[in-house]
Every structure is written in C-alpha cells, then in structure tokens.
Amino acid sequence: MDIKRIKQILSSSADIEVHYNGASVWIDQLNEDGQTATVHLRGPLEERTTVEISELKEV
C-alpha cells in the first residue's frame, strides 16, 4: 500500500478493510518516517504494532 492511500483511509469515515500478514487490522497512524504505520488487530485486543506500509494490503 502507498502513503497516499493510507492517508485516504485514515481520513475516511468508511470501514475499509486492511490486512497485515493475513490478519484484519485498523490503521492507527502513519508514522513520521513515511515508511511505517502503527496498526492494531480488529477485535478485543488493542496491542499496537509498527509495520512497513508496503506489507499492508487493502481487501
């Protein structure tokens, strides 16, 4: 996924499904380095993880 699309998803009110390693995640923020984003799994666990944006896939 690219920076432009992540910014669109973050500013959208729609529920846009994004996967990381096959798991459905919420994007919390695009990090300042422009290469990573902070995400957490959809569901009751809210453990946040920093991932490479290139590894995020829109479903």
TrEMBL record:
GO terms for cellular component: endospore-forming forespore. It is found in: Spore core. InterPro entries: SASP_SspH. This is Small, acid-soluble spore protein H. Induction: Expressed only in the forespore compartment of sporulating cells. It comes from the Bacteria. Its main location: other. Keywords: Sporulation. The lineage of its organism: Bacteria, Bacillati, Bacillota, Bacilli, Bacillales. GO terms for biological process: asexual sporulation; sporulation resulting in formation of a cellular spore. Pfam families: SspH. It comes from Robertmurraya siralis. Belongs to the SspH family.
